[in-house]
Amino acid sequence: MVYLFDFPAFFILLRQTLECIVILSVLFGFIDQLLPNNDLLKRKLKRNIWAGIIAGIIVAMLIGVLFVVFYVDARNLWREIKLIWEGTFYFIIAIIITFADFHLVRINQWEPHLKDAVNVYLEKHQICKKWALFLLSFSLVLRAVFESIVFIAGNGFSTSRISLPAITAITIGIIIGYVIYCGSLAMNNTTFFTAMITFLFFISAGSFSNSVGKFQTKIGKIDKNDIIWDIDCCISDGWSFLNSLFGFRTTATVWTTVGYFSWWAMIIIGLLYVHFDDKRRVSTNNK
Fold first, then answer.
1. pLDDT score of 263 more than 70
2. Measured distance CA(265)–CA(123) in Å, rounded
3. What band does 247 get if pLDDT is binned at 50, 70 and 90?
4. Taking the model in full, what pTM does it have?
5. Mean pLDDT along residues 122-148
6. Torsion angle of alpha carbons 7, 166, 17, 135, nearest 10°?
7. Nearest alpha-carbon partner for 206 in 104, 98, 83, 85
8. Which has the closest alpha carbon to 140: 282, 44, 27?
9. Count of beta carbons in the 10 Å neighbourhood of residue 70
10. Separation between Cα atoms, residue 261 and residue 18, nearest integer Å
11. How confident is the model at residue 265, as a pLDDT?
12. Could you tell me the pLDDT band of residue 238, with boundaries at 50, 70 and 90?
C-alpha cells in the first residue's frame, strides 16, 4: 500500500512554518499600524523583511543540498554540532528581538503625543536600519528551513511522501499568518503595540532559555539534581511548537529556569529605565 501523506513530516513542517509565520505576521502588522500614511517607508521596511526571508530560504536550501549530497558524513557532523547550532541561533534571536522590542516600547509611548515625529524618528533610528529587520527574518527562516531539511533527510522520509505534507503545512501556516496579520490591522494602535511587545518579550525570554538548554545539554552537565520538574505530558508536536516559540519545556533544569527568569529580570529593569528616563525627559522639556 502506498502512502502519499506522511503525517510526521506534516507536523514537523507545520511547526517550523508556524514558528516563522507567527512572528513575521506580527512584524508586518506592526509596520502597517505604525506607518499608515508613509507608504514609501512602509515598503522599504517590508522589503527588508522579505529580503531576510528570501536570503534565509536560499542559504538554508544551499546548506541543505550539501547536507543531502554528503548525507552520511553530514549526518554525523550534524549530530555533533546540532545543539551548538540551535543554541547559537536561539541566543541571536533573543538578542535581536529584545533590543528591537525596547525600541518599539519607546515608539509606542511617543506615538500618541508625537505622531508627526514618528516617521522622522523611524528614518533615523537603529531599529529601521536595514540590518535589524533583515537579520531577524533571516535568522528565523534560516534555522526553521535548515532544521526541516535535516530532520526530514535524517529520518529517511521519501520525496513522494513529503511533497503533499510540505505544501499542506506551508499553506496552513500562511493562512494562519494572514489571519494574524488581518487581526493586527483591526486593533487600535495602543492595544496592538502592547500585545505585540509583550508577545515578542515572551519569545525573547523563551529563546534565551532554549539557548541555555541547548548549550547545557551539549556540555553534558545535566543530572537529576539539576532537574526542577520532569513531566510526561505535553510532548506532542503542538507542545514542541510552544517550546520553540516561548521556551515551554516538559523538563526544566536549574539553568534553563534561571536563564528564563534572569532574562525577564533584565527586561523589567530595562522597561523601568525607559519609563523613568522618559519621565525625566518630559520633566526637562517642561522646564
1. yes
2. 31
3. confident
4. 0.60
5. 68
6. 140
7. 98
8. 27
9. 12
10. 25
11. 94
12. low
Whole-angstrom distance, CA of residue 219 vs CA of residue 257: 17
The band of 269, judged by pLDDT with boundaries at 50, 70 and 90, is very high
Entry field: residues in the chain: 287
User: How far out from the chain centre does Cα 77 lie?
Assistant: 25
Nearest to 138 by CA among 52, 61, 63: 52
Q: Please name the residue that has the C-alpha cell 547536507.
A: 67
Distances 236 to 2, 242, 247 between C-alpha atoms, Å: 26, 10, 15
Please state the separation of Cα 246 from the chain's center in Å: 9
| Alpha-carbon torsion angle 183, 184, 189, 190, nearest 10 | 80
Query: CB-side exposure of 80: number of CA atoms within 13 Å?
Result: 6
